[in-house]
Amino acid sequence: QVQLQESGPGLVKPSQTLSLTCTVSGGSITSNSYYWSWIRQPPGKGLEWMGAIHSSGITSYRPSLKSRTSIYRDTSKNQFTLQLTSVTPEDTAVYYCGRGRVPTTTLDYRGQGTQVTVSS
Q1: Phi, psi (5° rounding) for residue 7?
Q2: Among residues 5, 20, 6, which one has the least CA distance to residue 81?
């Protein structure tokens, strides 16, 4: 069974860069045809797909976040990382990593999530 675990800081200051890492076990991030995604849920709102890295290494991003988002992977550690630059309080959310067959919030496996608060 695939397991995913998010890690990173819980508090980030405005204008700084948020960096979260997802560690995957029970399956390789380079195998088969899966999208390894980052999604988030701001308080009181629904899930929002942010971007993904395909098992081939190709990345895709939500258009409204594309200028601030980068996703890359470390295949030796079976990890993939989200970087979000120039954060504002509106980026406060629970952040999840997950796996799916399509680059959306539809996931077959998902981590427990990590709370990130943007505040000075």
Answers
A1: -145, 150
A2: 20
Q: Residue 109: name the closest of 37, 17, 44, 11 by CA.
A: 37
- What integer pLDDT is reported at residue 39 of this predicted model? 98
Given a cut of 70, the residues of the chain with pLDDT beneath it are none
Residue 63 · residue 50 · CB < 8 Å = no
Which token pair is 103?
């680059």
> Which pLDDT score is estimated for 86?
98
Task: Enumerate long-range contacts of 55-59, CB under 8 Å, 24 or more apart.
Answer: 55/29, 55/30, 55/31, 57/30
- According to DSSP, the residues that pair with 93 across neighbouring strands are 116
One-character DSSP codes across the chain: --EEEEES-SEE-TTS-EEEEEEEESS-TTSSS-EEEEEEE-TTS--EEEEEEETTS-EEE-GGGGGGEEEEEETTTTEEEEEE-S--GGG-EEEEEEEESSSSS--SEE---EEEEE--
